[in-house]
Amino acid sequence: MEIMGTVVELASAAAGIVAAVVMYSSVKEVQKDRRLRFLERRLEEFYTPLIKYFGQGDLLRDQEVHRRVEEIIVSKRHLCGEGVARILPQHFTAVLSGSPGFYFEFENDHELNEWKTIADSIWGEYMEVLKEYYKLIGVESFTSPEKPRWMFILHRGSHY
Q1: Coil, strand, or helix at residue 152?
Q2: What CATH number did the domain enclosing 103 receive?
Q3: Which of 36, 61, 106, 118 is the one with CA 20 to 30 A from 157?
Q4: Residue 145 φ/ψ, nearest 5 degrees
Q5: CA–CA separation, 89 vs 87, rounded Å?
Q6: Tally of structural domains, the chain
Q7: Residue pLDDT, tens place only, 3-36
Q8: Is residue 5 part of a domain?
């Protein structure tokens, strides 16, 4: 009888260990899925649209595009990383000119350079998030996208 009790205890302990391993694996999979969804959200709602608005050469920068950039900066800033969060102003400071153009215009060299630095930081974080996303979905090798030229210039009406 003693041997039978020991066998039952061992079987019960083994079943408990298997159940713990299965639960651990399940929790890890849920954590991975949540991280993946968060990375997708960061890419789709923050980095990709800002890179498009700041760098797509054939995009007219009108009041609507300016409004979208402002909306992302104000309402989606929680999706950026620590580096961008440190330097991202509360509002988008490009000048709204009367007619749409292919560039965002800034009042002075300081603002122009500040937004170039911000755009570079956004690009850097975008690449980090993209690499992590690819790693989580199992893509081991990929061609990195080409960094765009930022469509920022000094405002034509500036005295600088």
Answers
A1: strand
A2: 1.10.3940.10
A3: 118
A4: -65, 155
A5: 6
A6: 1
A7: 776 877 777 776 677 766 667 667 678 899 999 9
A8: no
